[in-house]
Design goal:
heterodimer, A: about 220 residues, mainly alpha, MetI-like fold, 9 helices, globular, B: alpha/beta, Rossmann fold, Alpha-Beta Plaits, 2 domains, 6-stranded mixed sheet, cell membrane (chain B), translocase (chain B), ACT-like_dom_sf (chain B)
Amino acid sequence: MEVSLDLILQACWETLYMVSISLVFGSLIGLPLGILLVVTRKGHILENAFVFSILNPIVNILRSIPFIILLVAIIPFTRFIVGTAIGTTAAIVPLVLHIGPYMSRLIENSLLEVDKGIIESAQAMGATPLQIIFCFLLPEALPSIVLSITTATIGLIGATAMAGAIGGGGLGDLAITYGYQRFSTITIVVTVVILVLLVQGIQSLGNLIERKIRRM
Amino acid sequence: MIEFRNASKIFKSEDRTIEALKNINLTIEKGDIFGVIGFSGAGKSTLIRMVNLLEKPTSGQVLVDGQDLSKLSEKELRQAKKNIGMIFQHFNLLRSKTVFDNVAMPLKLSKTPKSVIEERVHELLHFVGLSDKANSYPDQLSGGQKQRVGIARALATNPSILLCDEPTSALDPQTTTSILQLLKRVNQEYNVTILMITHEMEVIKQICNRVAVMQNGEIIEEGTILDIFSKPKTETARNFVRSVLRDEIPQSIFHILQANDKFSKIYNIEFIGESSGKPILSQVAKSFAVDVNILFGSINELQGVPFGNLIVELQGEEAEIARAYDFIVQQNVLVNEVIRNGG
């Protein structure tokens, strides 16, 4: 059976579906987690050794598990959350768990780039910790956060390729099952070209938004 | 009014403790433009940050208008901070916000109604001379303009105290002067007490009425600016004064003098206040058989009081020079002999 346009379009759709949904939920985890990792560290506005010493290793552990292993290791959890352990939707659970902690590190770095003087001026104005986060840290770090999210999105596209292992579908799965296992060179070429274009497009879009925000 | 009472600060890290401030006692009166000068590492930054509790004193007290801020609740402290504005060496403006929004920030934080913010921000931008830059971003401004925005922002909540952390150290001399003039207007027109730290004596000279000299976490000298400039007691203070007022003969002149073998004595005469107006040297030349040779001179104005020095060479018979010297001493000026030549 040769690969058809329909199959490619469906794979594209599956990839975009997995990436976008995981990105939304991943951000919902990664953004607050990244903020917490910054503000609870020593000397910061909500210094809290207890919270930091719990969050930091959790993020490290989740980040150190290879995605292909995470994918199968959390099957019971996936089943609990979405009711099934196979299929495109099921792939989203491990994807979120993979990208959330990754994103929290990226966001953490973005926030740490903000000049300490900005926080000092906020404290001198009598800003509350929440005001410091939302009126000073986040707006100042926004261009960098956009680039972080761009990087995370591209990381997600890579991870979705492995979702085929649990029947997640998508472009990566198509390349493996049709291209590699059935020796269809054309499928490999087509999927690779699509993935390259997708990554290029997302990176360009991220750069464009970042430059818009920084008014360059 | 700001009072430091036996205020100390100790920084502890794993392997060492640093005594950043040792028993500071200092009073900044209402209406003062008080300068604190010292080399980097002297403890100036810690000192100024204690006023708005960016640094907590390890022991002792800092009172602002009689109130010990460290005794307040978080909420009361935030309220108290609105009475203390602060500007910084590197301005610390939000790059992501317009000039207008930067200045409006302290008001937004305290949930001020929009119409009030609008009015206040425009008034402040007018005061600092940046009405036309309301919609610009900090990146589009020069250093001096950024500091003006910083000043407008610090004044937004109508504080009675302004803390200035090296406000001109990142600026060129001309811009420095214009920013200092603006701070003087802040002091006079808004009745704001100013506490400023700096390492430049020129800054102190231009606007301060009182000055404290810091070294190794201690205040080693304090007084009116005229006191410190005319009678510095410590070596550090003398060095700072020398950085703006020269009281030594330039090397080139010194060499010319050494080549001259006529008998002469060289004196440094310091004038303060009304003595600056007296024609002392011309009287010396008329009344005594000596020649007066002015080698070096400078005149400055400190807090509206003229202040300066002249280095003069008196040539003639030794006895006549001695009589001239006695005459100068009686004129209420400070005289001391620098070198003697020939004879």
